[in-house]
Structure formats: C-alpha cells, structure tokens
Amino acid sequence: MGKKNVTFSDIAEYTHFSKTTISRYFNNPDSLTLENQQIIAKALEALNYKENKVARILANGKTEFIGIIIPNLYMHYYSAILDQILATYEKYGYKFLVFTGNDNEEIERKYIQELLAYKIEGMIILSHTLSSKELASYNIPIVAIEREDQYICSVNTDNYMGAVQATSLLVKSGAEILIHINADLSSDVPSYRRITGFMDTCTSQNLPHELILTDTGHTYKESVDIFYRLLDEIEQKYKNTVKGLFLPNDTFANIILNRLFQQYGRLPDDYKIIGFDDSPISRESVIPTSTVGQQIDKIADTALQILSERIKENHKRRPRTFIEPVHKVITPILLKRDTTK
Question: Residue 273 pairs with which residues in a beta bridge?
Fold first, then answer.
C-alpha cells in the first residue's frame, strides 16, 4: 500500500467501514464515535496514508488558505508580526499567502484578486492603503491589525496608554525637552493615539515638548535620510539640553541610536530614547533600547482566533448574514532598557 496513493476505498476495505464513514472521519470527525475514530486513525498509519489536499479542497471547499497583506518588510514590526502569524500554523492549521503592498492601491487590489482566485478563507490586513469599507465589500472574513477598522474586525494595541508610558518614562529619566516624531496620521488610524497620548501627557503636566509630524519615508534608505536630518536639526535647536526622543517604532529609534553612535561612539548623556513595538531590533541594537511592547505574539494569536471563528461561521449550513465587527485591544508593556537610564 505504501507504494501507491491510498484511497478512501482502500481505507474502507481495511477497516470494514463504508466510504461514507471514512469521508465523515475527514470532514466531520465528531459525528463518529471515539472508538471508530481511533480505528480509522490506526488504519491510516498502517496504510501509510498521505492526504490528498487537492481532493479534500474539491470535496469540502475548505482551502485553509489565509491571505496576508503587509505594507513592507523593512519595518521590524511587520516582519516580527508576520513571523508570529506564521507560527500559529500548529494551533490553527491555516496556511498563508503573503503580499507586500508598498502603499499602491492598484497593486493591492490586484493582490486581493489573486488571493481570491486561490479561494482563500480569510485575510489579515496590516496595510493602510485600502479603506476598511472597500475591504468589507469582498465579503470574506478579514481582521485588521493596527489600521483603520470601522467596517472590519481588528486587533490593536492600546496606543494611548503606550504613549503615556513612554512619555512618562522619558520624564523620569531626566529629559528636559520631550520630542515625539511621527507621520501626520489620520485620526482613524489606531497609532494616531500615540500622538494624542504624548500631547495629553505633556500638556496636562505642563512639560516642555515638541511634536514633529513629517513624512517618515517609504523605504529604509528614505527613513535614514529623514531621521538623520531631523536629528541634526534637534541637535542645533536644543544644545545643552537633555532631549527625550519618543519614536513611533523601534526601527526609527534604532536609526537615531546608530547615528548618535556614529557621531559620538556612545549614547550621549543628553539623549534619552524610547521606541514602540518591542520588535527584535530593540533588543539587538548597539545597546538595548527602551520600548513599549505590543505583545506581538498575543496580537497574532488574537487575530487568528477572531478570523478562525468567522471562518467557522461561514462554513455553517446557515451562516449569519451580518455580524458586527469585533475589535480587540491589547495592553502594552513598558520595557525599560539602557537608552532611558
């Protein structure tokens, strides 16, 4: 039997069950007694059965494919979240088709059509390019992570709390001027709350501060050029002042840290730095960088849990035609490291 493809007929003959019973084992095992499930499982092992995935997809319509669209891979957060999503295979059993959108609407729409052609059962979207209203129009289960989410399910960090934690740590570390650099975000993007958390903390405590909203680049090289220039301007503007820099992610915090080491061979005493994400670069940088941890593993698992529940609902004989989007918020964790001593 090990030298040919084992069929349902072979398994039925070996176990003395009908082919219908064998089919139920694969497609609805709970409909069989535990004893019969064990008999069939032992038969599969004895016959060296290798499942024909294509045949199973044709039989029950379940591809177990999930599409993922992320903005890019140069941001360490996106590579870290993708790594955690892929690691959920053992728990949820889904396979993933991944595309990077690079902020191009037409390309992302093309990617989605490609994913739909593969009969994906759901999508995870981290890209900000297409509106949640447009994404909802595809009528498949979708979970967003850290992006506008009015019409689709989402998992986000409590960005406001994280910003308050980051700003407060800079104050405690001795910063005399607090500076937050970020993109000029729309207020419906979850990470916009990092801006409001920073501003509310500074204004409520009457703390000297500056908010810099700017283009932060679409490639790593662009970001390096922008943050090198901003650092030069900050150096000139706030000489002989302890500067507390709150960066919107660990990638940008690492760019600033590397530039300071290039210039001084160390982190000068008049700089305190904190990032956001707790992506691996914050731990692996030239010195460990303080950051606000987003619990990336928990975000990924929660996203797959929501998506799996929606997919199972779609597989029901009479699925609910409209379900309100679910929005989960994950508590951040402040991580004090060497850049805020």
Answer: 245
